Amino acid sequence: MAKLTAEELLFRKIEEKVKRAIFEYSLIANGDRILIGLSGGKDSLALVDLLGRRSKIYNPRFEVVVAHVVMTNIPYCSDAEYLKSCADEHGLPFIIHETSFDASTDTRKSPCFLCSWTRRKALFDIAKKHNCNKIALGHHQDDIIETLLMNITHQGAFGTMPPRLKMDKFDMEIIRPMCLVEEKELVRIAEWKGYRKQIKNCPYESGSSRSDMKEVLARLEAINPEARYSIWNSMSNVQQDYLPQKNK
């Protein structure tokens, strides 16, 4: 048997992390039909690969549909044929959906929020139309930790994007199967597999504070190489008795 390359071993490690997330957080059950939101970035392309392969393993038994939402008022160009070929590689149905948003309709919300919400709503509509009961998004562990840091810093709230979120309003669940996968692992896999980066020139992207939180996380890991795991574990180890409690 040929010896596996470092990249092949890493991909297997990532697959094991996805498997662990599926079972630890009850992300997928027998009979699920899951819609993957494929943006065209490395994370969502990896998610198509990972769930496409996982759907061929019958524990649990589930189906996958892939959707790419085009935001017509953002100047970027998606290679639809390439994205379709990524779905075709695993025999998955592929859907393109066009929509847009008007940033002037709600000046209380940032354009990034409005764009994200419009995309999310489009995914809910597509999922319902194609009889999906869950939507899988390509957020990785760094995304989730950075969101936690953003909420603590800017919102005064201890919360983030959970691995599994039930959206009662839409009768739908959002799952994040790559919640235990580190971004640096996905960067290596993207290079190995040669994922094609989609062209995007978003006029609002520079206004995001996420890049600041990436630097904060990198600094914390420089102080303590295990910092990300401590932060991750802290979210399920909230010691309320040792936190300020307001009088009721």
UniProtKB/TrEMBL annotation:
Residues 34-194 form the tRNA(Ile)-lysidine/2-thiocytidine synthase N-terminal domain. The keyword Ribonucleoprotein does not apply. One of its GO terms (biological process) is tRNA processing. InterPro entries: Rossmann-like_a/b/a_fold, TilS/TtcA_N, tRNA_thiolation_TtcA_Ctu1. CDD domains: TtcA-like. It comes from the Bacteria. Keywords: Transferase. This is tRNA(Ile)-lysidine/2-thiocytidine synthase N-terminal domain-containing protein. It comes from Parabacteroides goldsteinii dnLKV18. The lineage of its organism: Bacteria, Pseudomonadati, Bacteroidota, Bacteroidia, Bacteroidales.
